[in-house]
Inverse folding.
């Protein structure tokens, strides 16, 4: 019984029924993760997954992604084409069913596809639901078919329905070719941006070419006067992939370890391919995939790989008498220090956590990977005892260092207790304690740091002035990184610990913001901090805590009898607009650094959550991030020099 007074009535008339594709429009995040850049590109991945499924199951060998002049995007393949026949019960063509009904597809019974990345039968329909319009062309049985979908008025439901078929599936030409071509225009009412980024699609196509040796993928961007085109093709598959990832690293064995295997468990068919190589890096990098889909949150296949690998090397460490009495026994993470590995599994009926397919859940994949990796690595170690002995020796050293880090972290935590006393005089600490509300801002230079301390909102903003450039942690030994006074202060303030001792629950700030000048030195400082965080506190990036502040480049102003009118331009393209808004007699001040701003200006332009511009640092594509950090910040010079000559503007 409710005793808290009257409540609103709740009966059957309050229940909302969403029809056809409406649920996708109401909750797009459930289907594509977000409505930002990531979600926008996820729509491309859904269609690309369908094309790659055709190819990897033996139908066709080529797929193309074309960004059109009008900002729509096309995905096409030379597979069999979506079925064009009329369904006996639904009385609709296969094309219309696939694009207007959720959970419709040919991948549920494993008859048409042994393995597939597009699994839930919602990908094509979701893309259609979130588009202003979609046009599908199918080449099949000697004919070219076409059908168009738009947001259109439904007479029966008496409202606009997303993804409605506005034309029937029509035969428009004859052809000897086969395949599917889909063009869609993302809806501006759904997405915060509809500008596709070439570099994001480029990296995905490069990965797919490595994973599917022998196929050809093409990317075209027709938006500029000079169209961009790139062709992707790999004959060596994962061997090319690992060479690409390790281009800027020093490897400790020239020949990568590569093996594959198949297994049938109950009703599941599984095949796996693994390629791995150890480097002199202090961090591990594992790229894992299920049916070509990157599993950025890992899953059972990756866990099985790790377990089997640890089992094999531990067993051989004893056989080779490489563990002495005084040695600390190494764990899996010690063994994997410096590893680059690509773990790929194809499975007939994968179970993912969520529609965006970031994490595999099949327990059978763990069993298969554990057994396969253990047996294959035991064979490899027997034939490569010298290299294996070096790897085991490095793992023992890593275990010793890990213990040293643990002791340092514990000592720091005891010193700190629950207060912020050790940071006094080094950091201006905020008064609130709730991580959800609090921000930690690293500011370039003592001068700007002083202004920021005055300008900040003391309730939720902590300020750490950064004295010039921190060390390049990509080139430093762990002991040197741990000894850096500035990094110690940062670690103490953030509270999580580093590397394997990182604990998200100890994080004191929901936002960590790097604030540097908008010049070459400022960008370098930014990069040094991002490199450190990427290598030593990567969950800060993975969990969306790291941001870059964007200070203005120009102040455009004019004083008159009514006072001073001010506009700020954050990029060059905004300057002319700001000048027009201020009007005749506008004066322009070019900011050379944060230190030139007084506290009021710094608050208004860069610190105030209501008016500032922050860029969240994300790892859209982990393999690209891994490669770029190694390339730009690592010891191997030649690849960096080549990159600079290709892209830098001197």
């Amino acid at each position: 019984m409710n005793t808290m007074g009257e409540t609103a009535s709740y009966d059957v008339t309050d229940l909302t029924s969403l029809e056809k594709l409406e649920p996708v429009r109401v909750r797009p995040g459930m289907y594509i993760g977000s409505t930002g850049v990531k979600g926008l590109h996820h729509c491309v991945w859904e269609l690309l997954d369908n094309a790659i499924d055709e190819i990897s199951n033996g139908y066709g060998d080529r797929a193309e992604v074309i960004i059109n002049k009008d900002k729509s995007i096309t995905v096409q393949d030379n597979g069999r084409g979506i079925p064009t026949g009329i369904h006996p019960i639904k009385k609709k063509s296969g094309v219309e069913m696939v694009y207007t009904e959720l959970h419709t597809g040919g991948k549920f019974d494993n008859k048409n596809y042994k393995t597939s990345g597009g699994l839930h039968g919602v990908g094509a329909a979701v893309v259609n639901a979130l588009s202003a319009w979609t046009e599908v062309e199918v080449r099949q049985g000697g004919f070219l078919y076409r059908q168009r979908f738009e947001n259109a008025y439904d007479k029966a439901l008496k409202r606009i329905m997303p993804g409605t078929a506005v034309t029937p599936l029509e035969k428009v030409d004859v052809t000897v070719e086969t395949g599917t071509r889909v063009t869609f225009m993302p809806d501006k009412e759904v997405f915060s941006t509809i500008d596709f980024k070439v570099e994001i699609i480029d990296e995905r196509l490069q990965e797919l070419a490595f994973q599917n040796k022998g196929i050809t993928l093409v990317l075209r961007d027709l938006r500029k006067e000079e169209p961009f085109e790139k062709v992707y093709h790999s004959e060596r598959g994962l061997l090319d992939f690992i060479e690409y990832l390790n281009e800027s690293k020093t490897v400790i064995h020239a020949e990568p370890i590569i093996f594959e295997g198949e297994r049938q468990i109950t009703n599941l068919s599984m095949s796996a391919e693994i390629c791995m190589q150890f480097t002199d890096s202090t961090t591990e990098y594992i790229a894992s995939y299920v049916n070509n889909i990157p599993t950025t949150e890992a899953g059972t296949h990756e866990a099985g790989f790790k377990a089997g690998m640890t089992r094999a090397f531990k067993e051989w460490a004893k056989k080779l008498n490489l563990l002495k009495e005084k040695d600390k026994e190494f764990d899996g993470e010690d063994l994997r220090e410096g590893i680059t590995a690509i773990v790929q599994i194809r499975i007939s009926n994968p179970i993912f956590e969520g529609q965006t397919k970031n994490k595999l859940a099949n327990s059978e994949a763990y069993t298969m990977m554990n057994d396969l990796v253990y047996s294959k690595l035991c064979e490899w170690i027997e034939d490569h005892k010298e290299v294996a002995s070096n790897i085991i020796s490095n793992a023992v050293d890593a275990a010793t260092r890990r213990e040293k880090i643990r002791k340092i972290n514990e000592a720091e935590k005891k010193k700190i207790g629950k207060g912020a006393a050790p940071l006094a005089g080094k950091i201006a600490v905020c008064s609130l304690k709730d991580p959800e509300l609090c921000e930690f801002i690293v500011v370039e230079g003592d001068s700007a740091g002083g202004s920021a301390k005055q300008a900040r909102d003391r309730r939720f903003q902590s300020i750490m002035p950064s004295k010039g450039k921190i060390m390049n942690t990509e080139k430093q030994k762990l002991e040197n990184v741990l000894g850096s006074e500035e990094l110690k202060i940062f670690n103490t303030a953030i509270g999580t610990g580093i590397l394997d001792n990182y604990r998200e629950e100890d994080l004191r700030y929901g936002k960590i913001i790097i604030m540097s000048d908008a010049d070459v030195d400022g960008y370098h400082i930014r990069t040094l901090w991002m490199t450190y965080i990427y290598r030593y506190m990567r969950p800060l990036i993975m969990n969306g805590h790291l941001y870059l502040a964007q200070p203005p480049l120009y102040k455009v102003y004019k004083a008159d009898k009514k006072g001073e009118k001010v506009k700020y331009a954050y990029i060059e393209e905004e300057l002319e607009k700001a000048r027009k808004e201020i009007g005749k007699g506008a004066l322009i001040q070019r900011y050379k650094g944060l230190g030139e701003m007084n506290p009021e200006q710094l608050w208004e332009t860069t610190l105030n959550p209501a008016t500032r511009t922050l860029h969240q640092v994300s790892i859209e594509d982990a393999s690209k991030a891994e490669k770029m950090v190694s390339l730009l910040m690592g010891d191997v010079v030649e690849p960096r020099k080549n990159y600079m000559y290709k892209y830098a503007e001197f």
The mean pLDDT is 84.
